[in-house]
């Protein structure tokens, strides 16, 4: 338990320091990175609370999960932020520009994306295990089904955020409009995008599981 507490506080400390760093150093056209990093951190923090046995074994687990599922798509959503690198105009006459500002912004974006992707998988595993425990489905197949279902939901969430540009506040202000858009968004191209984002998430989770198993076997 002490080990998990240490890991959790290392994660919290990293995000606090990183958000402070971004607040004071990041500028246009990458000012979006501060908010997106914070939104990506929220589900990671929520999943850390599942280490608390009192929460895991009580009804509190369900509201935490509901909030987590709303915010978790913000984690893989950061992968689509890589397209913002185009705004840096990194090429000149076919060659990469040697400009410290370009590479600084590149580094900030990559640190956020890599950190959130890795810790997002960590969060996803925690929530998957918590759901399996709560529903008494502790076999591998059941956990895999839960994991795939969560990546599907999050991939749909990425599509909603990236292409429909819908935010949670819209549900409260214009629920009928939101529901209409959600019902009409399904198409072959939309599903292709969803399955691509699912594949990326599942691949990252697979790599993380291999690393974890290797570390566990070497102890």
Automatic annotation (TrEMBL):
TM stretches of this protein: 60-80, 100-124, 144-164, 193-212
Domain of life of the organism encoding this protein: Bacteria
Protein name: Uncharacterized protein
Keywords in alphabetical order: Membrane, Transmembrane, Transmembrane helix
Alphabetical list of InterPro entries matching this protein: DUF1361 (IPR009793)
């Amino acid at each position: 338990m002490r080990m998990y507490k240490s890991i959790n506080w290392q994660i919290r400390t990293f995000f606090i320091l990183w958000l402070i760093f971004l607040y004071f150093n990041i500028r246009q056209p990458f000012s979006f990175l501060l908010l997106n990093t914070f939104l990506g951190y929220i589900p990671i923090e929520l999943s850390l609370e599942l280490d608390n046995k009192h929460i895991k074994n009580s009804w509190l687990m369900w509201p935490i999960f509901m909030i987590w599922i709303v915010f978790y798509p913000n984690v893989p959503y950061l992968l689509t932020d890589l397209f913002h690198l185009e705004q840096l105009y990194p090429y000149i006459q076919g060659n990469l520009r040697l400009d410290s500002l370009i590479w600084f912004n590149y580094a900030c974006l990559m640190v956020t994306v890599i950190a959130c992707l890795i810790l997002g998988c960590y969060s996803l595993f925690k929530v998957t295990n918590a759901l399996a425990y709560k529903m008494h489905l502790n076999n591998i197949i059941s956990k895999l089904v839960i994991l795939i279902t969560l990546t599907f939901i999050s991939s749909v969430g990425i599509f909603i955020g990236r292409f429909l540009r819908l935010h949670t506040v819209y549900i409260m202000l214009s629920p009928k409009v939101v529901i209409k858009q959600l019902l009409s968004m399904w198409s072959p191209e939309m599903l292709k995008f969803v399955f691509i984002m699912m594949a990326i998430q599942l691949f990252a989770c697979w790599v993380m599981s291999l690393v974890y198993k290797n570390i566990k076997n070497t102890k």
